[in-house]
Design a protein that fits this description.
single chain, alpha/beta, 10 strands, about 15% strand, binds 6-O-phosphono-alpha-D-glucopyranose, EC 2.6.1.16, transferase, aminotransferase
């Protein structure tokens, strides 16, 4: 009903605006469940390999976490849940299953297989005592509240917060910087008008690339997925450095290329922008702290670059939202998609 949308045109927009609170509730929830968090960390640290399994948007959160831990020397393998058969796990492995609904069939099947191999299971779901949580040795939760829009928004941002909390504890860092995540999100929401302009421009296109490097890549992937899901525009994410090995062949005048720039590897990204500009692409950037000098750029600032994901995420979601609305699509109920996929 209109009332439960609280004045917003769609649930998706309302839920994007709920992200600051969702992230904050997620962090405080994990602090109150600190014994479970410690058990999860012990399992992750003691295992030979960490296998991260998830689908869709949750996979992108899992990929981000995997990159963070890989950089610390952990042996982490992100696996798309439906591709579980490509890996054989054992008692020395731990599994981190990430699922908003806690019910996704592909994740459940992978989890059961790995559990049967004797691997320890940790879950991160947004539904208390979800089916996936019930199969797990340690149950962790995001506390984003119910999400109605089919395309995940605040639950993704909350997964990022939860995983970054885990990562900070594993590193032995002070995690209190995460208390500022909500303010970073709020400041990004002030750029809604700029995101709308980019979204409306993309809505008129039939293809787009989303490029990123390092920690930006999972967010480029999520940006492109959001666009596909609700705008029905063919958006493809690529590692920026890899784009010259094929994808750039499609780039001609006004081909839209959206760069995600979390504030690391900026010089390399700037080179990629130049490659695209040389082909007369229409370049966009969602940047943190340092500009890429694209044709259109939203420059966000954070004091602590560990918070960059919280700056960029609301913008990629708003761009998709406004591009879908401009096309006349219902972003809350995209065609062919279901919020929870309990079949294989
Ligand atoms: C469906 C939804 C996606 C979601 C994916 C994984 O495909 O449409 O938005 O990311 O399932 O869902 P989960 O509940 O496991 O996070």
């Amino acid at each position: 009903s209109a009332a439960s949308k609280e004045g917003y045109a769609h649930y998706m927009l309302k839920e994007i605006h709920e992200s600051p609170r969702a992230v904050d509730d997620t962090i405080s929830g994990l602090i109150s469940d600190i014994e479970d968090v410690k058990n999860a960390i012990k399992i992750l640290e003691e295992s030979k390999r960490i296998i991260v399994i998830a689908a869709g948007t949750s996979y992108h959160a899992g990929l981000y976490f995997s990159l963070l831990l890989q950089r610390e020397g952990f042996n982490v393998i992100p696996v798309i849940a439906s591709e579980y058969y490509n890996i054989k796990t054992n008692q020395e492995d731990s599994i981190l299953a990430i699922s908003q609904s806690g019910e996704t069939y592909d994740v459940m099947i992978a989890l059961k297989e790995f559990k049967a191999n004797g691997s320890k299971i940790i879950s991160l779901t947004n539904v208390i005592d979800s089916a996936i949580a019930r199969q797990s040795d340690v149950k962790l939760y995001t506390r984003a509240g119910p999400e109605i829009g089919v395309a995940a928004t605040k639950t993704f941002t909350s997964q990022i917060a939860a995983l970054q909390f885990l990562y900070s504890l594993i590193k032995g860092d002070d995690y209190t910087y995460l208390n500022k995540a909500k303010d970073v999100i709020r400041r990004s929401l002030d750029f809604e008008g700029e995101a709308k302009l980019i979204g409306e421009e993309l809505s008129a296109k039939s293809n787009a690339y989303y490029l990123g490097r390092g920690l930006s890549l999972p967010f480029a992937m999520e940006g492109a997925l959001k666009i596909k899901e609700i705008t029905y525009l063919h958006a493809e994410a690529y590692a920026a450095g890899e784009s010259k090995h094929g994808p750039i062949a499609l780039v001609e005048k006004d081909f839209p290329v959206v760069f995600i720039n979390l504030g690391e590897l900026v010089g390399e990204l700037q080179n990629n922008v130049q490659e695209m500009k040389a082909r007369k692409a229409k370049t966009y950037a969602i940047s943190v702290n340092e500009k890429l000098n694209t044709d259109k750029e939203i420059l966000l600032t954070v004091e602590d670059e560990r918070l960059s994901p919280f700056a960029v995420t609301p913008i990629i979601q708003l761009i998709a939202y406004y591009s879908a609305v401009k096309r006349g699509n219902d972003p809350d109920k995209p065609r062919n998609l279901a919020k929870t996929v309990t079949v294989g």
